[in-house]
## 1
Amino acid sequence: MRKVLLTTSLAVVATITAVVPAQAIRGGVEAPAPYAFSGSLQRPDSPRDDGHTCGVTLIAPSWAVTAGHCTKNNPSGAQVGRPKDWTVRLGTTDAGSGGEVIAVERFITYSPYPVHEGDVGLLKLKKPAKTKPVALPSARPAEGTRVRILGWGMTCDRRAPECYPKKLREADTVMQPVQACDGIHAERELCVGALDGSVAATNMDSGGPGLVRDGDGWLIAGVVSGSGGDDRPVMYTDLSYFKAWINDVVTGKIDPPDTPVPNLEGGAIVGGVCSASVVRTDRTRPGDPALLLTNGHCVPQRPAPGQTLTDVPVDVPVTIGDRQGYPQAKARTTTLVHATMTGTDTALYRLDQTYAQLRAKGVKIFRLAGRSARPGEQVDIVSAGNGDRFRCTIEAVVPHLREEGYTQDDAYRYDPECKPSHGGSGSPIVLRDGVTVVGVHSTGNDNGEQCTANNPCEVAADGTVSVHQGVRYGSRI
């Protein structure tokens, strides 16, 4: 997959891949004045204090355009939906203040596979903006056309406050031949920036505009989509190619239904990398610090084979989702109570909030089962990391599951149609009552290899080793 220019801390969906280290609007300067029609998509799951995730541009009083991977990058990966606490901030040079802030009522993505079939998305605002929209182009800009690019993209390759510019940056560059961008879809994408990449968009500039002159004003030719290769220009979605679809959506001629969303209530993300859930026992009291269950391989310092970590101070962020997967509450871990990858692949954290505090915020709390799941029993895997709820059957209990020097005992093997993937590690395995947790999802055999990383093998009671490519496994608790 090509690399898109977006980072996020909430979810990793299928169209989002690793990002390229770069400088914010490389070769640019701080914008001396705001662009009334241009702004920032701001979300509570942003890793930044100012909430910025993507660039947006107002194209009608109640509609803004951005990259499709910015709208599709929501907790469930829905193509069309009604987000929680998304806003756009228009007409300011400061992503964290000023301008006009309007809530987003709905997002509509052109394709369920935006990077490959058309990387454009629309945001319907809850009220019309006061400012004048920018016009769409009537035709594709010619090679050599001067382009002005804008954005609040990262200034270095770390997710850290010092890498997030507060002020809008801009640069003047040129429309390049499509051959200058690797992996471009020539019929519907533009190649924008210096040939050596010294002037170009970068991480978190996704959805930001490429503007061309229209007399004394501007037209928006495209929006930032993805990297054109190291030290290359950047690919922009050509809005002239999608103009008819955009106009049909804005005028109401096309009004797609919301994408059905699975019930993700209680699914959590820990450390920005693994799924998890808040769990209680029969002896839990409301005033007790809440406990968070995930995988042993998800902790910052993995336990070695045969090792169990106990009572280790650990501070990592936790986001707990609502029914649609949007953030219901945020917390932090204080202590790694217990973690191991031997016998079982599980970890238990203590949080900085009590059960009562989390319940007051509407958080769903799961109950730890007093037994294991049985072969043939139906379960749900609630995966915040995958943005999905998998309905599965425990096909078998495997005596030993071996992977990269580690061994799990009595691991769950799911039916072949059960496919939680990477990012789903640590997801609770829940009985059909919807609240009782009997395990955590842990691994799967990707490539058919034997006993290697991401390719566990089964070891029967008599020592016989077998490999089941594509099959997924969970750990008992």
Note: The longest strand covers residues 388-403.
## 2
Amino acid sequence: MIEPLPLHGPGGHPAHGTDFTAIDIRTTGLRPGRVVELAAVRVHADGSVAGQLTTLVDPGAGVPPGPAHGITRGELDDAPPFGEVLGPLLDLCAGSVVVAHDLAFVSAFLGFEVSDLGVRMPALPGVSTLAVAQSVLRLPNYRLTTVAHALGVPARPGQSALSGARTVARLVTSMVERYGFTFAAPPVFPGLPRFSGGRLLPRGEVATAEPGWMADAVERVAAGRDGDTYLDLLAEVVADQHLTPDEVTALAALAAEAGLSEARVRSTHEQLVTALREIAERDGVVTAAEARELRQVATALGVAGVDVRPTDGGKATRVLVLGTTVAADQLRARVLAEGVQLAKKLTASVTHLVVDATVPAGEPRLARAAELGAEVLDVRGAPVALGFEAPAVRAVPSGGRLPKVLGGRVLMGVGLVLMFIVVVAMFGGTPLAGGIFLAALGVGALLGGWWIAEPAPR
């Protein structure tokens, strides 16, 4: 249903002036199956919103909605089937480039739903923000929340598909503007079938709680470049700091449905808990709340031997990076990759505030940071100040040795002249004692000049 259209640097077909329609879905499982919620947000290249839709989708009578997204089976009973949602979705996408974070995942689920309807669809051009992020940033993982945080997108995806679609829309327009991406080929917008009618049932917006330590920690959990779908889902579920028995049961069922062995599931659980424990201890400070959350997650996932005790090693390093340049993006990614806490706003727990050239001198948070005792750094010097890189060793200027070199060479010249005089004098009948004296002076001048002019050992 969606054909990937790669983005790359300058030199291709311009992306400015193009409309993008960001799509996010909530599904019943890990592999192509049923969609239970869909949202799409159409934006112009400047980021302004041109239209949006969101709806729950009934996957069929009695089909469970799956974990992690807060949708109940009762809510789906009144929702329209996918066939009633497809028309409004295509109307919104017409003449635009489709964007999804994990484009392959979204395309597979939508393609399954369309094929189940018996509808033949031309391929829509699509962009993956995950693939684009992998090409420009080195991150511990490339989940949507992590990428959004690294690019300073001021929104945290919540449980709803609409929150995710809005975040994807902000990501793609930020990437195009900030990195100057162009299309590898001009996008081709096919004619799309029209469907009459169409019914939508939006899910009520739920105010998401302020993310706690666990949500911050899972952004720093390393994953392979190709990702791990089950690990990503697991991280999403534990990010709310609590695992219910129902969620654990649903996760086990999804893993089995996806063909994951019991050993693979157990290994993934251990991988996540071990990484969270290392992150907690690496911060230098483990609060009682953090230790309690980690033990709860470990117990729920059946991971034994996790003994994290509260410690007080001082104030943990917590960095807030302000700015919209590529350098600011790279530093935010570096902070996450180094396992350091990356703050989303300025609070008393922030130890370092980093700014780039886009931050005005009158930015109120600069003065507030000084009041809170946070160190203010320039983005260029921050990697060294934060301990990510060693200070550059300055080379001794070559001009500093120039006088010594010249002096040594002059002295060597004097020695050569004296030796020449000795040779001439000896042939002219000069007494032996005088010749020896002059020869000694010449040799001394030669050796002394060579010692002065010789480069110092490195």
Note: The chain has a mean pLDDT of 85.
## 3
Amino acid sequence: MSRVGGPGRVLTDDEVISFVAESLAGLDADGRSVCVLVPDATRVCPLPLLVGAVHRALHGRVSRLTVLVALGTHPAMTALDEHVGGPYPDTVVINHEWWDPATFADLGTIPSGRIEELSAGRMTGDVRVRLNRAVVDHDIALVVGPVLPHEVVGMSGGNKYFFPGVAGQEIIDVSHWLGALITSAEIIGTTGTTPVRALIDDGAALIPAACHALSVVTAHEGGLHSVSFGDCVSSWADAASVSAATHVTYLDQPVDRVLSLVPEMYGEIWTGAKGFYKVEPVVADGGEVILYAPHIRTLADSHPQIYEVGYHCRDYFTEQWERFSHIHWGVLAHSTHLRGAGTWSAADGERLRVNVTLATSIPPDVCAAVNLGYRDPGTIDVAGFDGLVVPRAGEMLFRLR
């Protein structure tokens, strides 16, 4: 594993390009095919710089070069060449077409005993491992993307670009529900190997391609703090240590109100909910988080089941499992992540620690139907807001000292 940069640095473009060239010069890639996995537009990352550097380092050496956008279950991207800074000669850029069963190759299963171990007995059953066949059909898989605090796995990046980035529904559901059982507030920002990280590492061990990663840490003022190169575990772990030093803001005491200014790269609540995940740890009991995003008009077009179940705490589902086990567990996980900590019992109903209010273009009746508060965004004075205002919400994690 090697790295350029660190928490106290912002790299120049030339430093990034030189490091990528030096790193890939030693890669056994001559005459072999390479699949480059990159994030979609919901991740802040100078992809044109990085993919351009990768292309310069590999073009003419490799037999085939494919760039695969790791959508997870996000909507398909358009203008793919523009997204990665192309077009590039002899290079194909494709979406991960998660909606098409023909997309996937079957790699085997993770056995039930391992799932029971990772979940401390709360989950059981073999997990089928399916992966985009573009990864399987290439000799080398190269992950290129950012590492930052994440609500499901602890820190994003590394093998997460395979699972759930270009994975089948089965392991997506299990990994996300496992994270939900642990809870977002407990797992987010954890730099070690969380149970969810261990699960996706197990899935990655089944990949026949040789896997490497250029794991980057973005700087809030633009550019990159660092780039780490190595296998998908060591490069991720190194970048996670840099992210922990740069992407976490510590407060001395809880706050009663938070106004999260959700950037336009999050086009629906499915992704815009990061504006809640990243601040939940610092909100006082009974406090409120307002997601301010006038541009958002929908909860999740690709996941209509969220309209059916609404937003609730973890125990609301686990204590009524017979009602909800048929719902995609990834949807249930998203629901619990946005609603945060709470309790449910048949006698007392649901009691939630934090109030969540949408100041979006989603109508008040829809908000009420899914158990969220509503606020007309036109009534909010951002400059005069009495509470914590978070610009570009969803990137910086807030914690109490």
Note: The mean pLDDT is 97.
## 4
Amino acid sequence: MGEPTRLRHGRVVPQVESALRGMLAEGRWRAGERLPNEVAVAAELGVGRSSVREAVRLLAHDGLLDVRHGSGTYVAQVPAGPAGAGGVRQLLRRARLLEVYEVRRALEVEAARLAARRVRPEDVARLGAELGRRQEAAGGDPSAFVDADLAFHRTVVELSGNAVLLGLFTSVLPVLREALVEMVVHETALPDLSCAHTALLDALASGDPGAAIAATVENLESLMALVREEFEEEVR
């Protein structure tokens, strides 16, 4: 498969995806050609088979690869030009992320305001433990990080004491989780929002609804602005 590709330190799956995307762009394999198996690709890149499998899944989702169970992974037939299948799917993914975050913002801002008025000391301790688990998961497996992040935010919604808000948030969790995992995997310039999460915890602990709202808005708007900017650049 040629000279080994060196990966940098950091999240592995995005780098594997980027490396494979580069190999496809440079024409290492022709359309319809079968790729080497997971073992060979993992050996060349110096990563585990699970990372290769996840990267292949993402590229198949973007229409660049065709995974045929029992047969192997093949280079898909992609229309020429920037508006090919991969570009279209990326646009759709970012548009969907914006919609998900608009709903999330509406729910979580009100939940934070109510939680700041109703939270108890034992609730603050629980949130602190969940925030610690979120911080520990940062930079690791995307799914584990997203699960820890959503556990923290779901608890905030729960502490609002509003059963309707909690029901709405719980109902969108599956879609939100899928969108967030894709965001963590695909977006390479995600801001570090640890401070915003800490600020939210501090606001809840001090019973300050205004500060809780501000921290929630900072958290969600930072990511929305990033995705919106990249989406608008691609549709120009």
Note: The beta strands are 65-68, 72-75.
